[in-house]
Amino acid sequence: MKTNNYTLRFFSLLLLLVAGILLGSTTQSTAQISSVTVTVNDPSSITLPTAPTTAASPASFCTGSSTTLSVTGGRLGSGTPAAQWVWYADACPTGAATPVGTGASISVSPTNTGNAPITKTYYVRAEGGFCNYTTPCVPVTVTINPTPTVTAPANQVFCAGAVTTAIPLSGTPTGVTYSISGGASIGLANASGVTQIPSFTPINATSAPVTATISLTPTANGCTGTAVTFTITVNPTATVVATADITRCAGATVPAINFTSATTGGTVTYSWTNDNPSVGIAASGTTSSIPSFTAANSACTDAVANIVVTPIYTNGGQTCNGTPDTFVVRVHPTPNATLAAANAELCQGTAVQLTYTATCGTGPFNVEIRQDGTTPFQTYTGVTSGSNITITPTPTSQGSHTYDLMKITDANGCTNPVTP
Fold it and tell me: What integer pLDDT is reported at residue 97 of this predicted model?
């Protein structure tokens, strides 16, 4: 009986111990370490973001410039934190991506290194916000125009007064036009919106070449490129120092006729023509002088030759004809005449009269007559054609007497026989 009591007490104590252990393991402490409050809203009370419309200002611009991208309409929704507009370039990302900007408007400066306009598309969407809602991307496309270019033409050399041909210009992009400046002093007017250097008449009033630096500025799609330059040289109109008219008697020696020019900065040569080679000068030549010649005239009137000398100026690979000079070479004929006795028979002591008839030359004449082959000759001045010359001395002896016309000098100073 005693043993049973002890056993009952043992199991009672064991049950109390187990119950105490179990009770202690299920009881939590009420002391807080940290706390947070979460509010769960009714979805119908939250405004979600919606997609906007987009614009770019300007929508087309020059490389190196900027444009403003902006949204209108749409909404970022309600709640805190708010959503924001996020911009991307070239594609709407499906995952994590680096945006080009955030906000209702951003400024971007895309570039174009090519030679034709290009387009670039940006995308915007609302991201984040209270419910971390993302709207569909909305695109906006801009056009980036390249910097126009122009290729400088080769330097040009023209002749003053000679109308030029147009000079074509090349550049990019398609449709590029050009502004021209710097050529007013040589006759090339400033111009804009052209595609070539227009034809013009170069001017140069000096005696040396003048050079102008021409500037070409390309423009296309509202964009202005870098100007390039080239030069236009205008050669002067060459001149030749005027040659005085030349008058000589037939048979006279004429010294060389030399040509000179005051034009500088290049090479001057000459081309000359003669419309009457019978005077003793060739019909044409390209020398800087007409060689010495013997004046010729086989007729009984003056021989006249018109000599035209054209200076030719060469510089920079361009040859330009200058202003011609004309001078006259006049050759008087050799005087000639006949003598006839006014009376073939005379009484002794009567003066002899000889009739002088000029066949060439310009009177009055000075003549020298030889009597009976003796010297000195007798000189008679102021003789006119058809007049009678009274011979002195009067012959005293009977018989035939001979009178020879030995020399004629006419009013032009020309003689027969010829004096070189």
Answer: 83
